[in-house]
Amino acid sequence: MATRTQFENSNEVGVFSKLTNSYCLVALGGSENFYSAFEAELGDAIPIAHTTIAGTRIVGRMTAGNRRGLLVPTQTTDQELQHLRNCLPDSVKVQRVEERLSALGNVICCNDYVALVHPDIDRETEELIADVLGVEVFRQTISGNVLVGSYCALSNQGALVHPQTTVQDQEELSSLLQVPLVAGTVNRGSQVVGAGMVVNDYLAVTGLDTTAPELSVIESIFRLQDAQPDAISGNLRDTLIETYS
């Protein structure tokens, strides 16, 4: 399922929210429409945490996470950390990261198996990503851009990257990520696909400006046409593959 919404007239859904297979974060404040778009689709499938990160509402840009864990910048307050730990499932590790590239959502792009990271990220951060999120980590650029989290939207089913990514780069990224990958846009031509949408294995949420052709590309590459939350039963890749084959 792919759906469209706005956060206070902004189409940058991926700036104000974070979506994984085990939880969802949405920014505090904003309009009810924004939350209801998530609540209508997710229901009781996964918890939705209303939060700020380091006092800001750009929760999608400040955090990186998957079903196993959530990484937050060192500026995150103790109250925010406690709130997140209370809201998220016990199986999800919430970890503060000391990293000068503190907008973690811009510099880390991950699913439940692989993470692409900014080439200059700290070695300690790289180890934390591998440990907390349980993923293989690759230092990478996307179409020459170091902000991999801004220019890639990724799930366990597929990936959408910056529209000017060359075919050679697309093939390299696809083989690293082990998912089908396509270059494209969201929100009527926006190249920052990571900031313009959020996606997990059964739901994508994009900005209201997203066109029908863009939406159909998203539904196709992320295999969302017939996906249901309850279909994501097992946590192993082979279970996922059986479910969607």
From TrEMBL:
It comes from the Eukaryota. Phosphorylation at Ser-174 and Ser-175 promotes nuclear export. It is found in: Cytoplasm; Nucleus, Nucleolus. Pfam families: eIF-6. One of its GO terms (biological process) is ribosomal subunit export from nucleus. Keywords: Cytoplasm, Initiation factor, Nucleus, Phosphoprotein, Protein biosynthesis, Ribosome biogenesis. One of its GO terms (molecular function) is translation initiation factor activity. The modification Phosphoserine is found at S174, S175. GO terms for cellular component: cytoplasm; nucleolus. Binds to the 60S ribosomal subunit and prevents its association with the 40S ribosomal subunit to form the 80S initiation complex in the cytoplasm. Is also involved in ribosome biogenesis. Associates with pre-60S subunits in the nucleus and is involved in its nuclear export. Monomer. Associates with the 60S ribosomal subunit. Belongs to the eIF-6 family. HAMAP family: eIF_6. This is Eukaryotic translation initiation factor 6. It comes from Kluyveromyces marxianus (strain DMKU3-1042 / BCC 29191 / NBRC 104275). The gene is TIF6.
